[in-house]
Please model this.
Amino acid sequence: MFFKKRNIIELKTAKEIERMKTAGKVVGEILNKLYDVIKPGITTKDIDIFSEKHIRSLKMVPAFLGVKGINYPFPSSACVSINNEVVHGIPSASRVLREGDIVSVDVGVIYEGYYGDAAKTYPVGNILKAADELIKVTEMSLNKGVGQALPGKRLGDISYAIQKTAEDAGFSVVRDFVGHGIGRYLHEEPQIPNFGKSNTGIRLLAGMVLAIEPMVNAGGYEVCSTDDTWTIVTKDGSLSAHFEHTVAITEEGCEILTKV
Ligand code: MG
Model:
């Protein structure tokens, strides 16, 4: 994984959170517009081009382009992952979306040195009920996790809420990839597992900014990488969905910076 780790949890000032909100708003706008863009017949590269054009038109910087990997940097602005692909799919002009697919898109933007990061999973045309259920439950698990991102709560409260929502519906949560703190770096402390026990882990404080991102599989939770060394897939070939928001914990509660 491409974690550039910071060993301490940096609390952000109101001014820093404003910058992240500007970055986050652009991410949110792109992800909302993709509901109209994504349809059978387009390629995963089309999604990447759409995202990058939008980011560049605002003189901002795509956050994922050039992120260090095992063998080579990530070559695109969006991660686009189809069906059994969990995260980090590389957009390609030869990958065509077909009716019935589900596709996860993860986008990051940098504005004045500060990051915003979010993801959604989309249906391609008409999809099977089971796939639709997976998408809905994954989004709900994100919302339940975000609902625990409050001052005075603990990190494990977020993890537990996500895991319980996914598992109660008969799905599993990926364990090898986690949410993360975010700010002047794409990946900061703390790591936010999508599984865990409530009332455990660090205490959440106003000023923490977190990217909460459940990855939920229809089958088992195990994943592995493919030959391209970036794309992560489910080991059993089952479908996977991914939703993410960047959220700031405030004195009053929580603000979702990537929601438009
Ligand atoms: Mg993220």
In short: The first helix runs from residue 14 to 37.
